[in-house]
Amino acid sequence: MDKAELNKLKLFLQKTFGSAELTVKARPQKTDSCEVYKGDEFIGVIYVDDEDEDRSFMFQMAILDIDLEDL
């Protein structure tokens, strides 16, 4: 993933989730994924899927049971 693609993913996430706090960072030693942060907090990973000549992305975010306690 190059810087232009990372920026497009960041802008997409910010628009989709309505938060300018979301950022996307390259992963060291990895070219098939990037990390997503809200401020300084890591919230997930975006993986690239290049199969079948159609480039797509999968956003994976874990939600812990303790994250739901105050809801």
N-C termini distance: 36 Å
Q: Pairing-aware structural class of the strands and helices?
A: alpha+beta
Sheet with the most strands?
4 strands, antiparallel
Number of domains: 1
Oligomer: single chain
The tally of beta strands, per DSSP, is 4
Number of helices: 1
What is the H-and-E element order? HEEEE
| Uncertain segments | none
| Portion in strands | 35-45%
List the helices and strands and how they pair.
Blueprint: H1 3-17, E1 22-26, E2 33-38, E3 41-49, E4 56-60
Antiparallel strand pairs: 1-2, 2-3, 3-4
Structure explained in plain terms:
This protein has 71 residues and is an alpha+beta fold. Helices cover 21% and strands 35% of the residues. It has one domain. It has one helix at residues 3-17, and strands at 22-26, 33-38, 41-49, 56-60. It has a four-stranded antiparallel beta sheet. The chain starts with a helix and ends in an 11-residue tail after the last strand. The relative contact order is 0.15.
